[in-house]
Amino acid sequence: MPREISSSVVYGGATATQGSNITVLDASNNTLFTFELPQAMSNSTLFFSTPEISNGATYTISSGGTIADYNNLWQGWYDGGVWSGGTTLTTFTPSSVVTTIGNTGGGPGGGGDWPGGGGGWPGRP
């Protein structure tokens, strides 16, 4: 049986304040994961990959809300949980192994941190 390849997402143009949360939700508003930002970011690029993201399904990236009842917490990464509040940054529907959304800048050597040229996630000081 062939092994399913998880989709990766490159999202450019994210802006958030230090300590705020960014989450990825599925179409039923189930939280896939949440990340608490260790520093502010402006017009930055996020890169993430998880087997829970499937081609053809719709997902939402949201920021500024709160996370509760999560499964695990490790260095700012929250697994699962219940997301509330926040603002929708974008929605996306993956259609390939790597899905690019938003303004990802120039890529490597394009004026910023890998992967996107506009920042990086979680970014460097």
What tags apply to this protein structure?
125 residues; mainly beta; 6-stranded antiparallel β-sheet; 3-stranded mixed β-sheet; 11 strands; 0% helix
Task: Describe this entry's structure for a reader.
By secondary structure, this protein is mostly beta strands. It has strands at residues 8-16, 21-25, 31-36, 41-49, 59-63, 66-68, 72-74, 77-79, 82-84, 87-92, 98-102. Residues 107-125 have low confidence and may be disordered.
Q: What is the number of strand segments?
A: 11
Task: Calculate Rg over CA atoms.
Answer: 14 Å
Work out the strand percent.
over 45%
Could you state the order of secondary-structure elements as H and E? EEEEEEEEEEE
Shape type = globular
The proportion of residues forming helix, as a percent range, comes to under 10%
Quote the distance from N terminus to C terminus.
44 Å
The secondary structure category is mainly beta
Order of strands across the main sheet: 7-8-3-2-5-10
Number of H/I helices: 0
Average per-residue pLDDT, rounded, comes to 80
Largest sheet: 6 strands, antiparallel
